[in-house]
């Protein structure tokens, strides 16, 4: 069996793709692979902030074309960057074991961020949540690969800290840069964060059978529930929706938070159910957030999209 893999060229995408090749080879040593690198919208447009792209898949649109045209057979995604609606004919074929899903600070820690300190992040969720915890700091929008983002700490932009995902740092061998793991109950992470997802064609039975062998049922239940919630809210990964999924006596517990962009308003919901009802659990959490006014906050975040080239308030 020969599997063609579509991948971005960024160090993180390459590390993730190679990791998945290793997982598949451990179960099916005879499998051969070829890599088909591609530039996504996110690679071609290095200027816009992510939320300006709206809820389209800035990392996934070109990949889905590669899959549909059969140029490639599978694509490895950071699940948090994969929209909750896939292109017709494509499926989320497998979710392997999840890495640490937490967000982290690199540079200054929460306790020693001084008033006026600058914290770098390109995500509206991280922006809203750090403003909520530390109202007197300044958030500076940054994007780019993980390495260059770390290099901005204490550099020309005067950033005291940047917020990143622990999973990405670990996959790049850069976890030594983490100075504080943020408690996900206080600082919930993005839907799907820390998990990889492999997208394939829904009718490609041979490939789907191989991919099933690297699935982790717990990780799958977690991301199914988180993604069902995000889908019901109509939100994408860059909106201020955070989650923290845990297990209690074999049951899945979903804690979710919507934060206003200025950090002043916070709507939370905590629901639990069995793993088999992961999707229903996600929908229940979305409904609770809606009843508590969370959707109104998201709608006002959407309105701040509208083609502006600066963050609201930045
Ligand atoms: N949006 C970029 C992105 N996509 C996935 C990760 C990290 C790895 C993961 O969450 O699985 C990152 C970098 C970051 O947010 O720090």
UniProtKB/TrEMBL annotation:
Keywords recorded for this protein, A-Z = Porphyrin biosynthesis, Transferase
Gene Ontology biological-process entries: protoporphyrinogen IX biosynthetic process
Q: What does this protein do?
A: Tetrapolymerization of the monopyrrole PBG into the hydroxymethylbilane pre-uroporphyrinogen in several discrete steps.
Spell out the reaction equation it catalyses.
4 porphobilinogen + H2O = hydroxymethylbilane + 4 NH4(+)
NCBIfam families in the record: hemC
- Name of this chain's protein: Hydroxymethylbilane synthase
User: For the Porphobilinogen deaminase N-terminal domain, which residue ranges apply?
Assistant: 3-207
Subunit comment: Monomer.
Q: What is its EC number?
A: 2.5.1.61
Residue ranges of the Porphobilinogen deaminase C-terminal domain?
Answer: 222-289
- The protein's required cofactors: dipyrromethane
Q: Pathway, according to UniProt?
A: Porphyrin-containing compound metabolism; protoporphyrin-IX biosynthesis; coproporphyrinogen-III from 5-aminolevulinate: step 2/4
**A molecular function GO annotation:** hydroxymethylbilane synthase activity
The entry's family comment says: Belongs to the HMBS family.
Tell me which GO cellular component terms the UniProt record holds: cytoplasm
The organism named in the record is Bosea psychrotolerans
Q: Does the keyword Transferase apply?
A: yes
């Amino acid at each position: 069996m020969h599997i063609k893999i579509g991948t971005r060229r960024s160090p993180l995408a390459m590390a993730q793709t190679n990791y998945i090749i290793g997982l598949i080879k451990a179960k099916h040593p005879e499998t051969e692979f070829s890599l088909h690198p591609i530039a996504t919208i996110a690679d071609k447009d290095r200027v816009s902030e992510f939320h300006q792209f709206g809820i389209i898949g800035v990392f996934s649109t070109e990949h889905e074309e590669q899959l549909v045209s059969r140029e490639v057979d599978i694509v490895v995604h950071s699940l948090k960057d994969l929209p909750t609606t896939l292109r017709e004919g494509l499926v989320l074929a497998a979710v392997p074991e999840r890495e640490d899903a937490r967000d982290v600070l690199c540079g200054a820690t929460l306790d020693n961020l001084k008033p006026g300190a600058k914290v770098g992040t390109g995500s509206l969720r991280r922006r809203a949540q750090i403003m909520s915890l530390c109202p007197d700091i300044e958030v500076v929008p940054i994007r780019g690969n993980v390495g260059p983002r770390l290099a901005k700490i204490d550099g020309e932009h005067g950033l005291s800290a940047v917020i990143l995902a622990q999973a990405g740092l670990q996959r790049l061998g850069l976890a030594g840069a983490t100075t504080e793991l943020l408690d996900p109950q206080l600082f919930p992470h993005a839907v799907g964060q820390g998990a990889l997802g492999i997208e394939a064609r829904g009718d490609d039975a041979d490939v789907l059978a191989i991919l099933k062998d690297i699935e982790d049922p717990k990780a799958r239940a977690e991301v199914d529930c988180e993604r069902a919630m995000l889908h019901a809210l109509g939100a994408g990964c860059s909106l201020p929706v955070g989650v923290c999924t845990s297990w209690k006596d074999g049951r899945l517990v979903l804690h979710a938070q919507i934060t206003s962009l200025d950090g002043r308003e916070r709507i939370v919901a905590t629901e639990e159910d069995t793993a088999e009802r992961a999707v229903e659990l996600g929908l229940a959490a979305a409904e609770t957030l809606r009843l508590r006014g969370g959707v109104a906050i998201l709608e006002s975040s959407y309105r701040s999209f509208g083609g502006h080239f600066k963050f609201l308030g930045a």
